[in-house]
Amino acid sequence: MSKTLAFEEPIVKLREKIAELEEFTSSNDVDLTAEITNLKTRLSNLETEIYTNMEPWDRVQVARHPQRPTTKEYIEELFEDFFELHGDRCFGDDAAIVAGIGSFESKPVTIIGHQRGKDTKENVKRNFGMPHPEGYRKALRLMKQAEKFGRPIICFIDTKGAYPGKAAEERGQSEAIARNLVEMAGLKVPVVSIVIGEGGSGGALALGVANHVHMLEHSTYSVISPEGAASILWKDSSLSKQAAEAMKITAQHLKQMEIIDEIIPEVLGGAHRDAKAQAENMRNVLRNSLEVLGKMDENEIIENRYKKFRNIGVFTE
After folding, report:
1. CA angle, corner 178, sides to 255 and 128, nearest 5?
2. Of the candidates 108, 112, 92, the residue with the CA atom closest to the CA atom of residue 100
3. How far is 273 from 293, CA to CA, in rounded Å?
4. pTM score, whole prediction
5. How far apart are CA 103 and CA 187, in angstroms?
6. CA-to-CA distance for 35 and 221, rounded, in angstroms?
7. Higher pLDDT, 68 or 44
8. Taking a C-beta distance cutoff of 8 angstroms, is the pair 128, 160 a contact?
9. Which end of the chain is more exposed for a tag (fewer CB within 10 A), N or C?
10. Are 244 and 283 in contact (CB under 8 A)?
């Protein structure tokens, strides 16, 4: 059963009313077709109004929806012959990062992404999508392999941030993230990253140094969570709604500031409503990115990525 978000309550109540009338009609000799049709029209208009005018905090809630499609679900829909690879060849394997080789419309690609769970058991296994350093080292191993064999790299970003625990620090969390940033900047193959849920801090950026960075319509991308920012700025995490507005963390804000390249529309109500349809929305953007980047040679790819990140930022005097 899908979780109901606060801003969706008027929609839920109207759906319940429609279901009630439909049940009454089917069990009684009463024709309420006209009333039901009117309510469905109102529902359609209400959904369009609410989902196209969401506040930043509403989008944060959609990005965190427990049924939001994960990296593995998009891999199943977008790629053929996916073969997962494991381990960083230093310490072990990290289930919070999924990485492997597959085909995108008959072209070989390397796919890497954060992986969270859909329930408590899977979230524990995946560490709630928060990678340890071995996860980032696994990702880098696959990136260097892709570079060796000339395969484009596609990354899916969906994490609250890198795991901040003692074990992760002992194994070099900061170094692992920093090395990914440096190595990704110089990769000689195209890199396309898509933020599919939450893009939090360096844990997200470790897969985000790409030629093209895209975001799903209701995803977020920032250096810290709204709750964390509110705690630091105002010593009150309950002000997270105001923080979300001030931080400019939505796809719409980031596109306006030219930090991302393209916003990928979501199905009405959010990607969790129809993962298959959402994947098709993503397919066109991926195809276009790979087509554009595929026309560049190695030096042009590196220069393109360098200029992208050098040009980020708005300066006033």
Report:
1. 70
2. 112
3. 31
4. 0.89
5. 20
6. 43
7. 68
8. yes
9. C
10. no
